[in-house]
Amino acid sequence: MQQTHVLATVDDTPGVWDSFPSATFDLRQLTIVAPSDQSYKITDGDIECTQEVEAEYTYVFNFFGDVSYYGDLPHTCANTTESSAVQYGTHAAQCHTIGTYDPAYDDMIWSLYDKSPDADPSKGVTLSYLPGEACKHKERSLRVNVVCANHAYRLMGAKEIDSCEYEITVESYIGCPRECPVTQAGLCHSQGLCMMELSDTFGLHGSPRCYCYEGRKGSDCSEKTHSSKETTSGSHPEAVQITFLVILTLMFFGLVGAVVYMTMQAIN
């Protein structure tokens, strides 16, 4: 389903996006606002299944913020600390801004990760950063895929998908729709799957939600369902009474049948 992007309004919250159909995303937890042990840095470059060995580059980026939090940038990146993403080579001879962020245009950078006609919001989101510095005949550009997965954060890879166009992929349950809750145990309490609810009404899809494994229930799958034994003895005592009455009735008719049979035998 094609996504429609609109300019962020005054009331729009950076890092939060309401997509269609009926799915909301909140990636603000991924933003690094001060120097810390955490960093978004990856060195990658060589493309598999090709004869050529492509040069390796290091990428440092941030979500909805700049890279000034990272204290180990090479001196060639001194003028890029207000960038949201930078790239530099093995010897750091050059450092390039490949993506920027402006909260006034927050809604314009979002799209669903699933680009199929029936785009599934439970797969995650893609952030297309605002253009970076000039590169040959165009500007450098970056998109970051945040794939919905049941772990806090995992950096999967970075690559140059075309000349001066870059792509970084991460996995995190923060990239899942908020309609699929995350508990201390994980996405859907690690007891279910975040999936889109299908609906035949007008050919549209419903909201994503947690589909719980057998024996689990609740919006986040954190509750246990009663076992059949518990249900019989506790939740539905009337079922026990009915079963008991049926057994007594069968015993009564069995006894009557035995008496009739013995009487007939005596007469004969």
UniProtKB/TrEMBL annotation:
Cellular component GO terms held in the UniProt record: endosome membrane; Golgi membrane
Localization of this protein: Endomembrane system
Domain MRH: 36-178
Alphabetized InterPro entries for the sequence: EGF, Man6P_isomerase_rcpt-bd_dom_sf, MRH_dom
SUPFAM superfamilies (UniProt xref): Mannose 6-phosphate receptor domain
Main location: membrane
Parts of the chain that traverse the membrane: 242-264
Keywords carried by this UniProt record: Disulfide bond, Membrane, Signal, Transmembrane, Transmembrane helix, Transport
Record-given protein name: MRH domain-containing protein
Species in which this protein is naturally found: Octactis speculum
